[in-house]
């Protein structure tokens, strides 16, 4: 009879094994299923403290990072057959008694969760295209100009807008002023004179100063940044570009899709595709063909300097090779990615989050930034939850 088992992979430095130990403790609080740890103990800085361990000697030519990936993509070769498995990255933390229900959502041949970024947003982190480094330089220049605008013109602009609003309200304060204002507005002039400082172009509805300069242009943030940096404002894309078309405020590129085509002759046609995240996935014997291809593809890029040492770019290639881009993925709550730097993610407290106006109470938190940061309220609440949680009864 097949069993449902969780599996972690770890090898190498102390920090990785400490992370695993924390996540193991959390999962044992909320799950009744067995847990397996796959490792290469010869590489480990400290022993893995767990009951069920599969110890496999990885090729000595691999770095610790490569060895960890090697073990992950070899799981279908290393684990006992005829079981259902849920792989978890070591920084995926159980925070709900619903974690065991993940096994109910397996879809052949393999089931992953969706990443929060698109394939082109992930691209600079998967291949050595230098777009990340270029973006960091350009974005620092943009941020510097943006901060300078806020320090010099934004406050003055807000003051001007308040003056216009107050003067408009004053002209409506009694019947006589309102009639005088209406008379000025409907006179034959091109402009409606608000007071001795401001006037309105009645046709374009734009405010001007008394000397005829457009208020919006004088205090325009986009124009200020353009003048300071030489960047070009793209109205259609609502963003800044360099003169040769590079994005300044959003990191993304097409080089991963190009590299997948070059290395594997596989097309990833949609630049906005939300590729799969390798942090949590379900697999069994029906997954072997998929995992064999992922295994071969990932080993192929280990020595290819055009690629970074990761498994997610090759996972995207494998997904498209099998035509699974539109396959149903795991619910977001089974791999809720908590990016410390994601400004669109609002923390509501009690391990609850708001994203795109939806409230999420995750079952697993995937914390890949600031894991263990005791000054971070999210981590503080994770520790409080685990300190008070009782072992789930069978």
Question: Briefly, what is this?
Answer:
By secondary structure, this protein is an alpha/beta fold. The chain is built from 12 helices and 17 strands. A 6-stranded mixed sheet has the order 3-2-1-4-12-6, sandwiched between helices. A 3-stranded mixed sheet has the order 5-17-13. It has a 3-stranded antiparallel sheet with strand order 7-8-9, with no helix packed on it.
- Given the structure, what is the number of helices? 12
Main-sheet strand order equals 3-2-1-4-12-6
- Percentage of residues assigned to helices: 25-40%
CATH class of the largest domain: Alpha Beta
Q: What CATH architecture label of the largest domain applies?
A: Alpha-Beta Complex
The residue-averaged pLDDT reads: 93
Which strand-content bin applies to the residues? 15-25%
Which consecutive residue ranges, at least 5 long each, have pLDDT under 50?
A: none
Taken in chain order, the helices and strands follow as EHEEHHEEEHHHEEEHHEEHEHHEEEEEH
| Biggest sheet overview | 6 strands, mixed
What CATH calls the topology of the largest domain is Spore Coat Polysaccharide Biosynthesis Protein SpsA, Chain A
State the distance separating the first and last CA atoms. 19 Å
- The total number of structural domains is 2
CATH superfamily of the largest domain: Spore Coat Polysaccharide Biosynthesis Protein SpsA, Chain A
Mind telling me the C-alpha Rg?
28 Å
Beta strand count: 17
Shape summary:
elongated
User: Class by helix and strand content?
Assistant: alpha/beta
């Amino acid at each position: 009879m097949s069993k449902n088992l969780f599996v972690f992979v770890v090898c190498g430095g102390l920090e990785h094994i400490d992370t695993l130990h924390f996540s193991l403790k959390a999962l044992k609080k909320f799950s009744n299923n067995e847990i397996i740890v796959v490792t290469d103990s010869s590489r480990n800085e400290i022993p893995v403290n767990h009951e069920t361990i599969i110890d496999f000697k990885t090729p000595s030519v691999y770095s610790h990072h490569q060895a960890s990936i090697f073990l992950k993509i070899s799981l279908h070769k290393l684990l006992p057959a005829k079981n259902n498995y849920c792989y978890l990255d070591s920084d995926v933390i159980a925070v709900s008694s619903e974690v065991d229900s993940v096994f109910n959502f397996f879809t052949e041949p393999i089931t992953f969760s969706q990443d929060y970024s698109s394939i082109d947003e992930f691209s600079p982190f998967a291949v050595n295209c230098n777009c990340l480094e270029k973006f960091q330089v350009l974005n620092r220049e943009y941020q510097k100009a943006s901060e300078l605008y806020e320090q010099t013109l934004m406050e003055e602009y807000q003051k001007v807008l308040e003056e216009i609003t107050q003067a408009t309200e004053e002209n409506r304060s009694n019947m006589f002023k309102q009639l005088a204002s209406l008379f000025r507005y409907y006179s034959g002039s091109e402009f409606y004179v608000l007071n001795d400082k401001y006037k309105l172009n009645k046709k374009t509805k734009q405010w001007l100063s008394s000397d005829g300069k457009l208020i919006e242009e004088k205090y325009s943030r986009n124009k200020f940044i353009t003048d300071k940096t030489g960047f070009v404002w793209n109205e259609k894309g609502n963003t800044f570009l360099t003169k040769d078309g590079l994005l300044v405020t959003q990191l993304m590129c097409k080089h991963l899709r190009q590299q997948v085509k070059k290395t594997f002759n596989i097309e990833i046609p949609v630049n906005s595709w939300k590729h799969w995240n390798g942090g949590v996935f379900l697999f069994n014997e029906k997954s072997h063909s998929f995992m064999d291809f992922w295994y071969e593809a990932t080993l192929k890029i280990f020595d290819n300097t055009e690629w970074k040492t990761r498994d997610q770019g090759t996972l995207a290639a494998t997904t498209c090779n099998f035509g699974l881009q539109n396959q149903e993925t795991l619910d977001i709550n089974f791999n809720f990615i908590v990016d410390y730097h994601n400004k669109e993610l609002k923390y509501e407290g009690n391990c609850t989050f708001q994203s795109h106006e939806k409230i999420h109470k995750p079952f697993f938190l995937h914390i890949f930034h600031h894991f263990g940061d005791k000054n971070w309220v999210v981590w503080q609440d994770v520790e409080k939850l685990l300190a008070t949680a009782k072992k789930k009864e069978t």
